[in-house]
Input
Amino acid sequence: MASETPVGHETVVGSTSSAVTSVREEILSKLKANSFGEEDIFAVHLALEEAFINAVRHGNKMDASRGVKIDYSVAPSRVEVTVTDEGDGFDPEAVPDPRFGENLYKPEGRGLFLMRSYMDVVKFNERGNSVCMIKNKANREPKNDENQTQP
Output
């Protein structure tokens, strides 16, 4: 049975694309242990990957000597993940929506768009080098055909 009180975890990993793997697996394992659905697990997985890649690529400028701090807590009904890099930060409101106009074919802004699309809360610190993301467990309603018996 999952604990009612979320336990906070904090770790610092290097600025390499594979450095997030063990932390990601820890978080996803805790989501499964707390009976999060596959859609919620996918959402957290995707958002964490995007936030981490942004921290490494844009924040720490691929400098392997810089770290990325990942704080997280998993409770029975929600997960909170904060990713912080050592970079100068940015203004997330200045990132254009990648779905429209000339931005449609630019690679910038897609990670931020995905994070905002899949997580319930995405907020940045004032400096813009730390993002806090929250995902609440979905109340899974049975599909209509799940309640029906086969003839």
